[in-house]
Amino acid sequence: MLAVTILGNNSAVPAHNRHPTSQIIQIQDHKFLVDCGEGTQMQMMAYKIRPGKINHIFISHLHGDHYFGLIGLLTTLGLNNRKHELTIYSPPFLQDIIELQFQAGDTRLPYPIHFTMLTDEGIIFQDKKVTVECFRVNHRIECWGFLFKEKKNIRKIDPQKVVEYNIPSSHFEMLQEGNHYVSPSNETILNELLTVPGNHASSYAYCADTGYFPQIAEKIKDVDLMYHESTYLHAFEKKAMERFHSTSRQAATVAKQANAKKLLLGHFSSIYENIEEFKTEASEIFENTECAIEGVCYIA
């Protein structure tokens, strides 16, 4: 399962009861935090998310509305006597900023933090179940998007068939990987007779602050769920371009080019109190569009 909980959907400042950018991605047995704007801790408490379960934090870029909540969160984890390590993925300089803040306050954490600097596109985290890739977007400063993917789920053993064909349990792992079974008498029993397909391997793309950048589409092709910033409506397309942000229609165009299954719009400018028109505009180009609403959990 892959699920995305929106903690903050606004742009530079809190407004209209909306908060700066932050999201929780739950995939397999991981809880990832993506960006950590001001108020992230309060949002976690409001939606009953336990920060102690987060072991990996991804910061897209170093504009304050995407990381000003981080120092408070790290300090709280220490006050809660966290012991296990935490890894933070970010552009350069974040480590220096965080360490200077701790040094100024003589703060000593009871847990280790590892910083991974984002310098090249590609896989930045993986285990047996999940991969996370980073890719460049087009913002005023260095900025990264993230692609979260379940690894292809293994096939499931058909319990009746393995009994019928007298398959030893020692061969189950091989069957789950898609191999055929060869009996001691050299008879081949096809994998399809002994297993059934596993669940669909889901994917989620977080397209961080960016001007219109259609190259993103090739990097996230066929993604199940896609988040793309849409700071402005179409009427402010020129302002979006000047500030390296996107409009609702531009986000929808990238989603269509990527052949995404569903689009979430976010990072709304504070000039808009009502955000429903974002969905209306985007849906004209890409039908399966929703506005990312704080507190809502979206399933890929």
Which short descriptors sum up this protein?
single chain, 300 residues, alpha/beta, seven-stranded mixed beta sheet, 18 strands
Enumerate how many helices there are, as a single number. Answer: 10
Terminal-residue CA separation = 8 Å
Uncertain regions spanning at least 5 consecutive residues = none
Mean pLDDT: 95
Summarize the helix and strand pattern as letters: EEEHEHEHEEEEEHHEEHEEHEHHEHEE
Instruction: Give the proportion of residues in helices.
Output: 10-25%
> What share of residues are in beta strands?
25-35%
- The class by helix and strand makeup works out as alpha/beta
Overall number of strands: 18
Global shape: globular
**Strand arrangement across the biggest beta sheet:** 6-5-4-3-2-1-18
Query: How is the main sheet built?
Result: 7 strands, mixed
Q: Describe it for me?
A:
The chain has 300 residues and is of the alpha/beta class. 24% of the residues lie in helices and 27% in strands. It has ten helices and 18 strands. The chain has a seven-stranded mixed beta sheet. The chain has a seven-stranded mixed beta sheet with strand order 7-8-9-14-15-16-17, covered by helices on one side. Strands 10-13 form a two-stranded antiparallel ribbon. Strand 2 and strand 3 form a beta hairpin. Helix 9 (248-258) crosses helix 10 (276-283). The chain is globular, with a radius of gyration of 22 Å. The mean pLDDT is 95.
Brief overview:
By secondary structure, this protein is an alpha/beta fold.
List the helices and strands and how they pair.
Layout: E1 2-8, E2 22-27, E3 30-36, H1 40-46, E4 56-58, H2 70-79, E5 86-90, H3 94-104, E6 113-117, E7 122-126, E8 130-136, E9 144-150, E10 156-157, H4 159-164, H5 172-176, E11 181-182, E12 188-189, H6 191-194, E13 195-196, E14 203-207, H7 216-219, E15 225-229, H8 237-242, H9 248-258, E16 262-266, H10 276-283, E17 289-291, E18 297-299
Parallel strand pairs: 3-4, 4-5, 5-6, 14-15, 15-16, 16-17
Antiparallel strand pairs: 1-2, 1-18, 2-3, 7-8, 8-9, 9-14, 10-13, 11-12
